[in-house]
Amino acid sequence: MEAVKLKTVDDLLMRLDERVELIGGEIIRRPMTRFAHARAQSKTDRTLGPFADESGAGGWWIVTDVSVAYETHECPSHDLAGWRRERLPDPPNGVIDRAPDWVCKIVSPGHEKKDTVTIPLLLQRHRVPWFWLIWPEERALIAHGLEDDGYRVVATLKATEHRRKPVRIPPFEAMELDLAAILE
After folding, report:
1. Putative restriction endonuclease domain location, by residue (predicted)?
2. What share of the chain is helix, strand, coil (3-state, %, to 5)?
3. What CATH number should be reported for the domain whose range is 32-183?
4. Residues 6 or more apart from 133 whose CB is under 8 A from it?
5. Is the CB of residue 180 less than 8 Å from the CB of residue 162?
6. How far apart are CA 111 and CA 132, in angstroms?
């Protein structure tokens, strides 16, 4: 029986195809972006803009479609991720190898296990304090906060229940967020 050779971040960087990520030592194609996914991503990015604005609530680098090299064989691409500027004063060059302070995955059909199990376990190992899941088809957001023994749900929100009612969601609770602006 032949041993399986795990792929590394270097193997990933040599690929010409940009729509791939490294999960468990395997280079996999990222799902084709659907309209609802892209819309949720761009609306979340715009809604959180004041936190990334140097003159506003600030204090964050918030980026979309960013690859993070957590380990030799783990370099997923996150829909949105944020680093507090106190931990990351300057934006990095190339693939970042510092765990974010917040990650948001927009759940893609056919990739639910990766988005809801594999990635959260990786983030938990690397002590990422905040993790959001957005389900565009269900118009729902579930926010998780890291505790000693793993993630716990800190908010479960549905657009239908919070229509035009501002909410405060960690780690961005300094500002009321319009959930409908993200999920509708």
Report:
1. 14-162
2. 25, 30, 45
3. 3.90.1570.10
4. 104, 105, 106, 107, 115, 116, 141, 142, 144
5. yes
6. 16
Length in residues, the chain: 184
- Tens of each residue's pLDDT in the chain, 184 residues: 667 788 888 877 777 777 888 899 998 888 778 888 899 999 999 989 888 866 545 589 999 999 999 999 999 999 999 999 989 988 888 889 999 999 999 998 888 999 999 999 999 999 999 999 999 988 899 999 999 999 999 999 887 775 667 889 999 998 888 877 788 7
Tokens of 163: 């229509």
For residues 144 and 117, the answer to whether their CB atoms sit within 8 Å is no
What is the model's pTM? 0.89
Question: Residue 48 and residue 19: Cα distance in Å, rounded?
Answer: 25
80, two tokens: 């949105």
